[in-house]
Specification:
Number of strands: 18
Strand content: over 45%
Structural class: mainly beta
Helix content: 10-25%
Distance between the termini: 59 Å
Number of domains: 1
Order of helices and strands: EEEEEHEEEEEEHEEEEEHEEH
Shape: globular
């Protein structure tokens, strides 16, 4: 049985996952901005801004809404913006998880959520933005994907297309590279990959956003 501090159910997985969380009185849950779908009337919301103005201008900051119950317990429904899966992990305070910049969905109040600089080249080539989200501390963490989430145990090394990465555990090192050189990057249809080293866990998503964008592009309204 998994360790958890919050009572919750996940419905609609892995295609259109949705979380229903029961919060005891005076309990706070942190939720990605715009992901609240339903809530009881005794729940109040407060917006938190992670990072200063300069970080906001570079795209590093995170907007997180805090929801707190008043006068009894309450329920909140949380729905990610992308159609896909939701994964729950209980952080025990000993190991952090790094998520792609759109992966964080919700957490209990004692989980520390902060953005971390990947490095210019890593961020530029990964296509996932310049920043990862680091989640640490102790408590419940929920993250989401585009498509289903698959959990992989890494004991030495592993290669993952950058567009399929949802998150990975602290301690894994990685470098961004290509398969077959940069010529194949443009001719083969394969993207850049992350070569992981060490031991830990990786969570991948079964769909990638970029092919969806390419597929949808011809259907955009054309001026004139």
């Amino acid at each position: 049985m998994e360790h958890t501090s919050l009572q919750y159910t996940i419905e609609g997985a892995p295609d259109y996952a949705f979380i229903d969380v029961k919060l005891p009185q005076d309990t706070i849950i942190k939720v990605e901005a715009s992901s609240m779908a339903t809530m009881d009337t005794n729940i109040e919301m407060k917006t938190k801004f992670k990072g200063g103005l300069s970080r906001f201008l570079t795209g590093e900051s995170i907007f997180i809404n805090e929801f707190k119950t008043k006068n009894g317990s309450g329920r909140i429904g949380i729905a990610p913006s992308m159609p896909g899966d939701i994964k729950h992990v209980y952080l025990d305070g000993n190991q952090a998880i790094f998520l792609q910049n759109s992966g964080f969905l919700a957490s209990s109040t004692d989980v520390v959520v902060e953005s971390k600089f990947q490095g210019l080249m890593k961020g530029f080539f990964s296509g996932e933005g310049l920043f990862l989200i680091k989640c640490s501390g102790r408590g419940d963490l929920f993250f989401n994907s585009y498509g289903a989430i698959i959990e992989l145990d890494v004991n030495d090394g592993y290669v993952v297309d950058t567009g399929n990465i949802v998150g990975f555990t602290e301690g894994l090192e990685y470098e961004i590279t290509t398969i077959g050189g940069y010529r194949s990057l443009f001719l083969s249809g394969e993207g850049l990959v992350a070569k992981f080293r060490g031991s830990g866990k990786i969570w991948i998503q079964t769909k990638k956003v970029r092919p969806l964008v390419y597929w949808a592009n011809p259907f955009r309204p054309q001026k004139g």
